[in-house]
Design a protein that fits this description.
Number of helices: 8
Strand content: 25-35%
CATH superfamily of the largest domain: Periplasmic binding protein-like II
Bound molecules: 1-O-pyrophosphono-5-O-phosphono-alpha-D-ribofuranose
Order of helices and strands: EHEEHEHEEEHEHEHEEHH
Largest sheet: 6 strands, mixed
CATH topology of the largest domain: D-Maltodextrin-Binding Protein, domain 2
Number of domains: 2
Shape: elongated
CATH class of the largest domain: Alpha Beta
Amino acid sequence: MATRNKIQPSLMIALPKGRMASQTLDLLIAAGIPTPNGDVGRKLVIEAAGENGSETKNLRYILAKPSDVPTYVEYGAADVGVCGLDTLRESGRNVYEPLLLPFGRCHLSLCAPAERPNTPLRYESMPRVATKYPALTADFFRRRGVNAEIIALHGSVELGPLVGLADLIVDLVETGGTLRANGLVEIRTIMESQAVLIVNRAAYRLKAAVIDSLIARLRRVI
Ligand code: PRP
């Protein structure tokens, strides 16, 4: 049975590296869940630290690229993970989504150069669209009956229209600063996003008590 600061049986949690890492750790700490202690350097699998700083063998973390978190969780390499809804939907991974988390809020938008005429999408003729979200972008255009050429990129998508690679982009907008700095404007919102706790479906049945306890503790502080 789970006690206040001890989680049993062993649990593997996939944390996203980058933007959401510190907010995820802050939330776990606020919820009283043991987290890695101090600087983890380049280590990718980390034991959580217990109350006296010793490692707790029953709770471990992996640090993964955010877009890989749903994969680790669907395959059960991690029992639980944190990622953005945008990343999860793009991945198409089948996981349990018990809890939205109060950070990482942004939206996925179709954007264009500010000077480009804002014609209805159905009049677009095979636009070239650069994005880190090829599946969601293809789905967005398919549902509207528009043929589009999707150009998959891995970052700095806003560069696409500036150098003639693409007519439009689909990307995350948080403050809007990157769009403004590059003369782009949003023309359609595709989805709202925020961080979400995801759980492997089999683990949720086999480790129900410990995962329910984790979710309950997080719920109390959000
Ligand atoms: C994200 C996103 C936008 C930017 C939006 O990129 O893809 O480029 O942040 O944020 P803003 O609206 O607050 O300006 P990220 O910083 O993760 O880097 P990347 O483009 O290299 O993936």
